[in-house]
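Support request from a user on the community tier.

User writes: "When I paste my structure tokens into the form, the page sometimes reloads and wipes my input. The last time it worked, I copied everything first. Here is what I submitted, just in case something in the input itself triggers the reload:"
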């Protein structure tokens, strides 16, 4: 299997896009393929652009520092291998064909096959260059994807939804879900500080959150039993409360939720006593050890946690680290039922090597009516920007604003958390 975690591909994509955007005469530039669809693993990286002088743009591309090997280079196209072993194709295309080609190279393959079948019913044939009327032979290219989808009689389909999971049928009826957008997010529900293993203070994190336009963040440092250098116990949570209250006075308009990421022990008990958890605004509970348990034991462990009245959110439910650690074994439907029956939330952890809930798990949670909390698990200021990945993952799961708790205004969120 040559697929790589998207965490490894994104820095490469960003570096290439940044470099190419500085190339004179380059206009449109877009990554296609599974990166654009935001799959959690990707194969090759495809980049499309338009340029006044394609040959010059291609020559500029192969000069990138990260190029280990130029596999092929032509007038409008080049293929390189990066120093991290990722294959990247750049295609400079004529502007009138940009939309058609972007749609084609974004895929997915299954989505495009289903589109082709639908088109045939309309007397049309599809190719990477556009849409051809079979009877007349008249071919049309598209500058943008909107017009391409419109010609097929359907709504524009967001790239994250192009997996042939029913999106074409809904788009034909004009009934695609209105999926989550970054602007819907009002706060981050999983943030660490120097009180545990984070790199920034409560104040720095809070200020960075306010700079991002948030109404609230939840400070959720690790509990003591995890064995990180400095974990939270009752005494430290009380001291942190003072700092949080001071910080809120310094940063009016931002609500800082007092929380904790309490560690789930091997038997499903928690690191902190109930009376300590009861005094907090939000409690997220996560598995960080004894991850190789049998499915039966892990399921019982998680169900026990979800039955604790003081727990609000199950953090990074599968425990996977993309490319490094497999998900834990558990009976997912039993765990999700326990979440639903006990009124708990499931976290969509947006940390780029977690992306946990996965798209399919999030879709299952959504269908069961379980609220999803997106948290970045930020351990540094710039990690707050991982929220964009959580949003894109939520779009893959067809989540709308109403499915995500941190789209709620602060008062409604606190009410939802039973803290009013
Ligand atoms: Zn954690
Ligand atoms: Zn965490």
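"...and here is what came back when it finally went through:"
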């Amino acid at each position: 299997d040559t697929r790589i975690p998207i965490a490894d591909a994104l820095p490469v994509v960003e570096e290439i896009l940044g470099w190419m955007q500085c190339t004179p005469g380059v206009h449109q530039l877009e990554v296609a393929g599974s990166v654009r669809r935001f799959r959690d693993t990707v194969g090759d990286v495809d980049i499309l652009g338009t340029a006044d002088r394609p040959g010059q743009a291609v020559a500029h591309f192969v000069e990138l520092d990260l190029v280990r090997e130029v596999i092929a280079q032509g007038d409008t196209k080049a293929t390189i291998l990066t120093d991290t072993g990722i294959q990247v194709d750049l295609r400079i295309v004529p502007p009138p064909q940009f939309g058609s080609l972007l749609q084609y190279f974004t895929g997915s393959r299954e989505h495009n096959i289903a589109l082709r079948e639908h088109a045939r019913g309309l007397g049309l044939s599809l190719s990477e260059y556009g849409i051809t009327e079979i009877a007349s032979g008249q071919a049309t290219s598209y500058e943008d994807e909107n017009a391409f989808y419109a010609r097929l009689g359907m709504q524009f389909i967001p790239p994250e939804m192009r997996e042939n999971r029913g999106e074409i049928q809904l788009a034909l009826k004009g009934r695609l879900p209105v999926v989550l957008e970054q602007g819907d997010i009002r706060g981050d529900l999983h943030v660490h500080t120097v009180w545990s293993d984070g790199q920034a203070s409560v104040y720095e994190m809070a200020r960075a959150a306010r700079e991002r336009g948030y109404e609230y963040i939840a400070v959720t440092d690790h509990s003591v039993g995890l064995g990180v250098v400095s974990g939270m116990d009752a005494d430290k949570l009380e001291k942190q409360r003072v700092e949080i209250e001071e910080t809120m006075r310094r940063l009016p308009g931002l609500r800082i939720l007092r929380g904790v990421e309490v560690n789930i022990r091997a038997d499903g008990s928690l690191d902190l006593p109930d009376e300590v958890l009861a005094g907090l605004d939000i409690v997220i509970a996560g598995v960080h050890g004894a991850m190789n348990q049998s499915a039966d034991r892990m399921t019982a462990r998680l169900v026990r946690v979800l039955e604790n009245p003081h727990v609000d959110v199950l953090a990074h439910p599968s425990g996977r680290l993309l490319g490094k650690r497999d998900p834990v074994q558990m009976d997912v439907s039993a765990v999700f039922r326990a979440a639903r029956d006990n009124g708990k939330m499931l976290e969509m952890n947006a940390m780029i090597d977690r992306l946990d809930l996965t798209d399919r798990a999030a879709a299952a949670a959504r269908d069961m009516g379980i609220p999803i909390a997106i948290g970045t698990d930020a351990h540094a200021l710039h990690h707050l920007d991982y929220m964009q990945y959580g949003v894109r993952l939520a779009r893959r799961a067809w989540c709308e604003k109403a499915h995500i708790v941190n789209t709620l205004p602060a008062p409604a969120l606190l009410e939802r958390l039973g803290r009013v």
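Agent notes: The reload is a front-end session timeout and is unrelated to the input. The first helix runs from residue 6 to 21. Residues 261, 286, 288, 315-316 surround zinc ion (ligand 1) (CB under 6 Å). Escalated to web team.
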